[in-house]
């Protein structure tokens, strides 16, 4: 049932060929794939039950594998895919979840963490001020794109 609700999200992408997956969950999460796959939960509010989030993601991956690959069977269990809740910079309000998710993804992609010990300690990964500036960067990008499209449209 859960897979049915989101199966179109990856219909044009084989997620099993990717090195990293960023999975936004309304309350927190993100996976990464070193030699042995690992789910790294990055929760900017520390609200989620990390084990529940990981169980849901493993269930999704199990169904997605069966739908996409079929055989050979693969099991996404806590033994075959470890998980950890990372220490990451925390937000100080209830409205910046998305901005923090974008900053986590940007920081990770700029400097991927591929060799690590659990639990992963990234609490000094970036300053809070950088997240505050993210909204202005997004606004500027949207306005720049809008102006560019309007200029092209008028020609």
List descriptors.
SUMO-specific endopeptidase activity; protease; Ubiquitin-like protease family profile domain-containing protein; Adenoviral Proteinase, Chain; hydrolase; 4 helices; globular; 3 strands; 155 residues
Short account of what is shown:
With 155 residues, the chain is mainly α. 42% of the residues lie in helices and 6% in strands.
Percent of residues in helices: 40-55%
Gyration radius (Cα, Å) is 18 Å
- The total strand number stands at 3
Going by CATH, the homologous superfamily would be Adenoviral Proteinase, Chain A
Taking the alpha carbons of the first and last residues, their distance comes to: 49 Å
**Overall geometry:** globular
Strand order of the largest sheet: 1-2-3
Overall average pLDDT: 81
Proper CATH architecture: 3-Layer(aba) Sandwich
How much of the sequence lies in strands comes to 5-15%
Q: Which residue ranges are poorly predicted, with pLDDT under 50 across at least 5 consecutive positions?
A: none
Largest sheet: 3 strands, mixed
> What letter string, H or E per element, gives the SSE order?
HEEHEHH
Which structural class best describes the helix and strand composition?
mainly alpha
């Amino acid at each position: 049932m859960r897979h049915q609700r989101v199966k179109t999200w990856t219909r044009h992408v084989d997620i099993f060929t990717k090195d990293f997956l960023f999975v936004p969950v309304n309350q927190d999460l993100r996976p990464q794939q070193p030699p042995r796959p690992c789910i790294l939960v990055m929760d900017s509010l520390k609200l989620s039950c990390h084990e529940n989030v990981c169980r849901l993601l493993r269930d999704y991956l199990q169904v997605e594998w069966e739908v996409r690959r079929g055989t050979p069977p693969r099991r996404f269990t806590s033994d075959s895919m470890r998980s950890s809740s990372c220490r990451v910079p925390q937000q100080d309000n209830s409205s910046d979840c998305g901005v923090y998710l974008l900053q986590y993804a940007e920081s990770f992609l700029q400097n991927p963490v591929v060799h690590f010990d659990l639990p992963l300690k990234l609490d000094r990964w970036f300053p809070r001020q950088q997240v505050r500036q993210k909204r202005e960067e997004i606004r500027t990008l949207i306005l720049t794109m809008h102006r560019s499209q309007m200029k092209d449209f008028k020609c």
